Amino acid sequence: MDASAEPLIRLRELRKSFDSNEVLKNIAIDVHQGEVVSIIGASGSGKSTFLRCLNVLEMPDGGRMQFEDFDFDFEPGARNQPTPADLRRLRARIGMVFQSYNLWPHMTVLENIVEAPIRVKGEPKRQAIERAEALLERIGLVDKRDARPTRLSGGQQQRVAIVRALAMTPKLMLFDEVTSALDPELVGEVLALMAALAAEGMTMLLVTHEIAFARDVSSRVLFFDKGVIAEEGPSGEVLRDPKSERLRQFLKRILHEDTLQARLPPSLTGVAAELLREA
Fold this sequence. Notes:
Elements: E1 9-18, E2 21-31, E3 36-40, H1 47-54, E4 62-67, E5 70-73, H2 84-93, E6 94-97, H3 109-119, H4 125-138, H5 154-166, E7 172-176, H6 184-199, E8 204-207, H7 211-217, E9 220-225, E10 228-234, H8 235-240, H9 245-254, H10 266-278
Helix pairs in contact: 3-4, 3-5, 5-6, 6-10, 7-10
């Protein structure tokens, strides 16, 4: 990552409320190409809403977002608010993976992956299938290409959901607590794929409670608290030596024996480190 380069995405004064509940309060952040930014915080702190505002699944109430050639002003009455055509183009460049897999149950694994490239981007079917098969080969699921999602484990479904987003060749990937619905023994296989993407230079923002993964793989951590970024900085510094009492208490609640040892299997920490060394 070149910190002196123009950011891939720039946000200023991003705001979002639901009725009288102000969920995001003047969020400002720059994210550079190749950064991996982990977002942590208690439930209700605004983390997921923040991600949904980034690809405008939730329309912000105010603020400005710049991303590649997009420059959106969300203030009421602003001229350059996003149009439906803008949003279709934006979402073709920003992949998002949710905690629920959201795979179409009536389609095969392969059909789930090629649907958007063919219909949204107009990609030739043969080209879309070749990319999908290559991605499935990479995650060890090419033999499941003709299976329905219900025949897969939760970890397999989540990896297919990630591959489906990657099939659109996005510039930015958003992950919203993608391991929270998985059984503990399935978490590692999903985190390993995400670690590999990070090692390859994919720009990623992820909401997560996997603190060891955030520490080992992320370049930066944002701690959300009551709709604001209460603390941020390099992942190792923030998670090993939090400055605020609020963050210290949050980490104590989710870590075992008040140490920075999360649910990430120890073997995966080594896998992530090896991937990063090879990148």
